[in-house]
Amino acid sequence: MRSFTISASWIARAASALVALAAFATALACSGDRAATPAPRAYVPVSRTITVTTVPLLVKEQQNLLPFLKEDFAKGGVLEGKEVYAFSPSTITVVEGDTIHFVLINPEDDVHSFVLPDLAVSMPGQTTTKATYVAKRAGIEPFVCAVQAHLPMMSGQLVVLPASAMASAMAAAAR
C-alpha cells in the first residue's frame, strides 16, 4: 500500500479553493434571481427653466468694425438682405414629458421670434419674454427665428430623450 503525506499548506490551499468555489456557486445561483433586481423606475417628468439668448454674429451694424462686411452686405454680396444671428444655446436637451419654462432674452433692437412645433413666441427688441412648452414626443425638434432675413442661420434643436431610456439609465446607475 502506498502512503501519502499531506502538508498543512496543501490543506490550507484546498480549503481556500473550496471557499472560493462556494462563493462563486452562491453568486451564480443568485444571479438568476430577478426578483432581487429592482425593476426600472419610471421617469418622473420635471420642470426645467432654460434661458435662451439671441446673439448677433454678422450684422449690418458691424460694417465699420469689420470693413469686409460692407461688400458682403452690398447688393450682390453674400449677405445681401440677410443678417447672421444665433440662439445661445443652440442645442437644448430635455426628457419626454418635461415642462420647459423658457426665458427668452433679446438684448438687441431687432425683433426676433422663437418657433418650435406647437409654440411661436415673438421676441421684441430689448425684452425678456417667457413661454412654457411641454416636450410631448421623443425626437429632435427644430427651432428657428421666423424673421425671413434671419433664416436659415438662426436655428437650433430641442433634443427630447425618450422617458423609457431615462428610466433604464437611472436603473443602471442605481446598480
Task: Report what the structure shows.
A hairpin with a 2-residue loop joins strand 5 (112-116) and strand 6 (119-123). It is built from three helices and nine strands. The strands form three sheets. The protein has a four-stranded mixed β-sheet with strand order 2-1-4-7, with no helix packed on it. It has a three-stranded mixed β-sheet with strand order 3-9-8. The protein has a two-stranded antiparallel sheet with strand order 5-6. Helix content is 24%, strand content 35%. It has helices at residues 8-31, 68-73, 163-174; strands at residues 47-58, 84-88, 91-95, 99-106, 112-116, 119-123, 127-134, 139-144, 155-161. The protein is of the alpha/beta class and 175 residues long. The model is unreliable at 1-12 and 14-28 (pLDDT under 50). It has a domain at 47-166: Cupredoxins -  blue copper proteins (Immunoglobulin-like), CATH 2.60.40.
- CATH class designation of the domain at 47-166: Mainly Beta
| H/E topology pattern | HEHEEEEEEEEH
Number of strand elements: 9
Form type: elongated
Gyration radius (Cα, Å) is: 31 Å
Helix content: 10-25%
- Report on the biggest sheet: 4 strands, mixed
CATH topology of the domain at 47-166: Immunoglobulin-like
State the separation between the terminal residues, measured CA to CA: 57 Å
* Full CATH superfamily name of the domain at 47-166: Cupredoxins -  blue copper proteins
β-strand amount: 25-35%
Arithmetic mean pLDDT: 83
Low-confidence stretches: 1-12, 14-28
Just name the CATH architecture of the domain at 47-166.
Sandwich
Read across the widest sheet, the strand sequence of neighbours is: 2-1-4-7
